[in-house]
Amino acid sequence: MRRGLMLVPVALAVTVVVEIAVFVLVGHRIGFGAALLLVFATSLLGAVLLRREGVRAWRGFRDAAQAGLPPGAQVTDGLVGLVAGLLLAVPGLITAAVGALLILPPVRRLARHRVQRAAERRISSAVAGDLFGPRRVRVRRGAPRSSDEPPVSTPAQGGAASGGRAIEGEIVDPR
Fold first, then answer.
1. Is 5 exposed, middle or buried (0-12, 13-18, 19+ CB in 10 A)?
2. Can you give the pLDDT at residue 54?
3. Is residue 81 part of a domain?
4. What are the helix (H) ranges across 32-104?
5. Among 10, 60, 128, 133, which is most exposed with the fewest C-beta within 10 angstroms?
6. Is 55 a domain residue?
7. Which of 51, 97, 96, 98 is nearest to 78 (CA)?
């Protein structure tokens, strides 16, 4: 975790250098006035999107909490929307392109799924269940795929108590 935080200033410096280089290239191609107008327009769009996504995320979280549903999907979707708005609001053409991609529904779904999986890896399964709701489990019959993999559960863990047999399965997101 700390190593990742140490890379943030380096990543920001590289991003600034790349953004300036791309701006100069685009400025030569379409004119500096047009390039400046493009950067200004995407920043304005990003500011509007930040406000809209923030309000939308809060309403989704509040509605899910009032309905007694797990708010995780609304939280992760709101987070992806806020990142898209922030990337658009930051002056730059590369960040604007990435932010615009995050607005597209298929890319947004993929990003939301990745954010959810990253969160689930970092928190306990009980908290993940409370946040994202119960998971469906698909069970496959037959021998496990690889003998190198540890069993899914053991009798010592409170798992398969009948003879210590493990059932191989995978978590399937119901969406």
1. exposed
2. 86
3. yes
4. 32-67, 72-89, 93-103
5. 10
6. yes
7. 51
What pLDDT does residue 74 have? Answer: 81
Spatial contact of 98 and 111, defined as CB atoms under 8 Å apart:
no
pTM strictly above 0.70: no
Task: List phi, psi (to 5°) of 169.
Answer: -155, 175
Q: Which segments in the chain show pLDDT lower than 70?
A: 1, 134-175
Over residues 105-142, the pLDDT tens digits come to 999 999 988 988 887 777 777 777 777 776 655 666 66
What pLDDT score was predicted for residue 88?
A: 93
- The domain in which residue 49 lies consists of 7-133
- Give me the pLDDT at residue 145, please: 62
Overall residue count recorded for the chain in this entry: 175
Structure tokens that stand for 134 in this block: 């119960």
158: left (phi over 0), alpha (psi -120 to 50) or beta: left
The tally of domains found in the chain comes to 1
Burial of 150 (0-12, 13-18, 19+ CB in 10 A): exposed
Asked whether the beta carbons of 119 and 76 are under 8 A apart, the reply is yes
> Tell me, what's the pLDDT at 155?
44
